[in-house]
């Protein structure tokens, strides 16, 4: 499903605070927003994005679009201007609405600055959320979207809370099924709510007024509906204590808001931590397709199957041609090895398109017109010409179906026979199908059998031979138990004990297997057991070390990182996701250090042949 | 910039190029090892003695020669089908040589004309090349068919005349073996390891089909010499003992060799052939097609050996450091530190596919040569690339006029970002950890249950310690390390995580390395899978899809939550927690459990019923994947193609396959159990019938006066998006061609106009 996300960026003066590495909170916020937007753009062209800047010197949003003449609204402006100091943009950066993002949007975000003197500006995060919610409502109401509001703030500014209005907006967000995600820079508290809080209660837990110095940092315990009212009295005391209190109260307010809508408040200390948390949340949903599951004659039902794994790919590069009258085009080819990169004075827009035209020739180099061409199958060293009529006889007519041929003990189906990628088969929302699939899954699990079936994956295609296995999932260490939500834990446990769905793998037909001859393997040497056992112990990975489910394909990652960097700076050098400093696909240094002794012992016990090229020739 | 990148080849090039006919397996240094199989060639020698042509009688009008030809046909078909569907073995050649033929034979047929320039002399010595050694095609099958259908009378042409060979200086079989040697030498499809810059070991076999177990007692020594010569050249000689037809005419065969025939089931290899053949897999004479097919199947293992996909090192995690140490080595001790377990890789499951069609010139019936021109907007040709028969790579790369003008860009939401092909290569190299040779790097171990079996994005590779005939001692050390590490992995119940780069220039993958247990054939005790290691490609984060939860899973979660609640209640009680009303607490929980059972998860009764069905429908336990279960669709496809090629008007598709079980058989075996399962299945609540999907109406902001256009009959002039706007505004569907859309708009306006008219009238 396509997503509509509104990013709310806080540009309050406190966001200018710098981290150790020299970048400010606001730089960090911009980076997070840009990266998340890039992710959305890469995931699907149909995803839409809006950006709202809090505490902006400019007021411009979908409630209020000033003429270009008096765009700059000062604080003395008319009271009627709604949501002052809120800047909203989307699309290419000019529109004031949620729209499909373009690279210009990223550049526009890049150009944003922290507002000086913003203490005196309005446009707090509550206003931002209200504008964001309305923007989402207007763009996506009654449409199929996955909606999110991502607020990136240090929450160190005073907030005017109109409890009633806020409650209304939060209820609206609940109705829209829109989650609120808060990336809290230097927050002290955090929380996660996988779904909106139940019940019709409209109360928002609002912290006591900021000038009432109550020592209460537990938002969830905060009192019932409290109207923070229009309290906007200037507190002159300021200072660190004041800011800390404001921040703490704001954090609690945000937590209670996310509890209401579902979402999370993340306490982030630095950029790396944010990405570490955000990564791994990008698994895309698998499209479900219908299949007629024929368990036995007369017992069939409509089930759904979807891919469990699918190789992610890169888009192909676009080709353009430098016009031949430019100086560069005259250059001999080999003067610059990498002539396709830079140094063209011509922008891609001014380049020519490239077309491919195919033609066919016979052995005498005479062109064979399309009317004189036909189709044939290669049959060994000969060709078998096929007329259109002949081709007609080859069309298999079949609906998408999965028909069980029989069952065999699972010991006869070694894993080496399974050809991925696997599919999952479930009953979706049909009681009959769910019951049948789960009965079969449990039946197969208990009898230790595998169902052999013929599977027509696409209409009118030939069937593949498949094995149907119970989906006996195991608790994975990759995502440790501590990291799992209560629900996830239960689901994993339940699945482990009682499978309810099935996994489909392709299997070889007759003739598809070629066994590499008889290869005997001698008995192992009992005296060397310890060396090997020690090596394994020393090199055992724990927790999320080298967890492939969280390692992004480095080629794809590098490609997109480079592309995004070049959107801002076309001359930007390549960005390598895997480099000497950072390499996810390597044995963790700590493990390697710990295993030194075990490795040396292994090398000593087993003199190994040289691995380099020269000696390999021997 | 090479032509592959120009034509949008897959940037990853992930999959080993098994399909490529020029594919040669390579080690890291690009050379071939002893396990690398080239093509497999078979020359069939058919004996033309009189008894070979004698029909079996008793309603069977076939002869041993027919059987031989039938085997040849089956071999041809099998070779062609494998070549086409497995996309490998395009060079595999098959030839047929007749020996003990009569001295003068009739003129050559088209099939024989090719490549048999010098067999005239041999003909006189009782040898005739019926089919030269070439990769077979449908024409060869057709030619053999002619012989089998007696459209060509092989018997008349070639059957040995009585007493013909009595005065031979050289036994025809000896001549035939020489002819075979010559054919192996001269055939274009055979690549000799010693005569080619690309050393490939082709396997060569000679199969002798004869009914005589002692054909030339006097010529044994000469025969042995020539057979030994052949064997030295890696030619494998096998004899197929043939049963022949009835012996009523036995007296006629008086060549003094006492031929054994139909009534004599023995074939004594010790008399003659044991010194000639490489192996004697078939002891007694064969007469039925079943026997021949079985024999052919047995030999398939030989001539269809898997190719070693790769060989190279399996390195331990500290390998980079060791290489650095080696480079900096001051003393001898630190030299040769870059060591690894050397392994051979096999991919043993290769799913067959239908071939794709090619374009032909309808007049010549030959494949056309596809030429792709790259042109710019001004029509100027930048490059021309020929594909097909005469593709010349060198020409295409150096002679192209405008290749240097082409630039490549990454498309990011419509904006073009510079990204050259060489940069892509650089990215790929960095993404593969800058590995500069093919490698399997072991990164660490994990308990085996932590890697779900379904995390396999592709088919598995089998890995064994490398077989290298040169250094036996080093080989044994290598094996020891492999065997002991594997044993330890089994002992500790762990799997290894690794990274593999198959070929420089490709991207590396993460893999799981699992110990592979030996799988034996229960019946024959033969090895179905040798013990070793199995390497399965793992998905990256980007490759994992999250399936949507179905209702059964939701119900299960709910039940688990309740169960947890119950357990917690129990625990509280045990801890002495306050239990004001134990009974009511438990009953509430039980009620809740019952309420959560919505029927989406199977009841225990249904699971039992499913188990009964499974038990009853369990097929023979000895079923072997890869050896049983025929690919019906592919078989039908080939039968159909052959029928078309043979212009067979009476072609009837085969209908019986072990993968297509008739319903009656299933019901007969498990009818009662299936019925019970069916009865126990819950019904779905009938969904209220919705008359079609309700489309959301979106206001038409096109500003077009539709009625006016309708009246002018100018709806056609509207653009597709405009028509869609109107249709959206009335909640109509948007699918179909433009004409359909226009029609839909017309109909609607027509109707609405009519309604308005009626209303007005009222």
UniProtKB/TrEMBL annotation, chain A:
Region annotation Disordered: where it falls in the sequence: 197-241, 323-351
Matching SUPFAM superfamilies: SPOC domain-like, vWA-like
UniProt keyword DNA repair, yes or no: yes
Main location: nucleus
Cross-referenced PROSITE patterns: VWFA (PS50234)
InterPro entries reported for this sequence: DNA_bd_Ku70/Ku80 (IPR006164), Ku_N (IPR005161), SPOC-like_C_dom_sf (IPR016194), VWF_A (IPR002035), vWFA_dom_sf (IPR036465)
One of the Pfam families matching this protein, by short name: Ku
UniProt subcellular location: Nucleus
One record GO biological process: double-strand break repair via nonhomologous end joining
Keywords: ATP-binding, DNA damage, DNA recombination, DNA repair, DNA-binding, Helicase, Hydrolase, Nucleotide-binding, Nucleus
Composition skew (Acidic residues), residue ranges: 227-239
GO cellular component labels: Ku70:Ku80 complex
Extent of Basic and acidic residues compositional bias: 202-212
GO molecular function: ATP binding; double-stranded DNA binding; helicase activity; hydrolase activity; telomeric DNA binding
Domain VWFA stretches: 4-185
Name the record gives this protein: VWFA domain-containing protein
UniProt source species: Cylindrotheca closterium
From TrEMBL, chain B:
Keyword Hydrolase attributed: yes
Gene Ontology biological-process annotations: DNA recombination; double-strand break repair via nonhomologous end joining; telomere maintenance
MF terms (GO), sorted A to Z: ATP binding; damaged DNA binding; double-stranded DNA binding; helicase activity; hydrolase activity; telomeric DNA binding
Residue stretches making up the SAP domain: 715-749
Main location: nucleus
UniProt xrefs under Pfam families: Ku (PF02735), Ku_N (PF03731), SAP (PF02037)
Region (Disordered): 1-36
Taxonomic superkingdom: Eukaryota
Residues passing through the membrane, by range: none
Assigned GO CC terms: Ku70:Ku80 complex
Subcellular location: Nucleus
SUPFAM superfamilies reported in the protein's UniProt record: SAP domain (SSF68906), SPOC domain-like (SSF100939), vWA-like (SSF53300)
Keywords: ATP-binding, DNA damage, DNA recombination, DNA repair, DNA-binding, Helicase, Hydrolase, Nucleotide-binding, Nucleus
Protein name: SAP domain-containing protein
Protein species of origin: Cylindrotheca closterium
Taxonomic path: Eukaryota, Sar, Stramenopiles, Ochrophyta, Bacillariophyta
